[in-house]
Amino acid sequence: MPKSYLPCVKTDPDAKLYRKGKTSSELRYMGHTLSDNRHGLVVSAMVTKADGHAEREAAKVMLNDARQVIEDLNVEVTVGADKGYDAHEFIEACLEMKVTPHVAQNTSGRRSAVADAIASSAGYAVSQQKRKLIEQGFGWVKTVGRMRQVMVRGLKKVDQMFVLSMAAYHLVRMRSLGQIRPQLQ
What we know:
The chain is an alpha+beta fold. It has a domain at about 15-130: 2-Layer Sandwich (Nucleotidyltransferase, domain 5). It has 6 helices and 5 strands; from the N terminus they run E-E-E-H-E-H-E-H-H-H-H. The strands form 2 sheets. A 3-stranded antiparallel β-sheet has the order 1-2-3, sandwiched between helices. A two-stranded parallel ribbon has the order 4-5. The protein is globular, with a radius of gyration of 18 Å.
């Protein structure tokens, strides 16, 4: 199917053809979350139309919102992300917001936008391990939150359903963080 061919979707005109990995193209939205590295709690969530730049654009919006909540610019804020975020414009936007980008370096055939000084820090290694916590939220939302195949149409409704599902996941995580578990010896 040529890229220029986009079917006229009467049921959900906001959904876009998008291919993830080696799968075939399907009509999709993209869900984005920002989470706390310490506990994996969701700080912000949103849905956008699927395209190649939506992840970075949504991340900039959510990071800007998070940075505005923390008024003290001396408080260090870091963001851990995968190779898809290793782009000069995203790294520069993070640095302008006083956010340290702990983004996985994409060195396949090009130079990474992440400075070597950042990549060699101890905090960078921790962020690269902790960033995988966010995948648990997506798994929960797809199975328990019923987001694998949404039953609503339109960007606004899908966004509301996604944010509500992530809020429910957030409450489940907070409950389990507060429990005292017996120590096995």
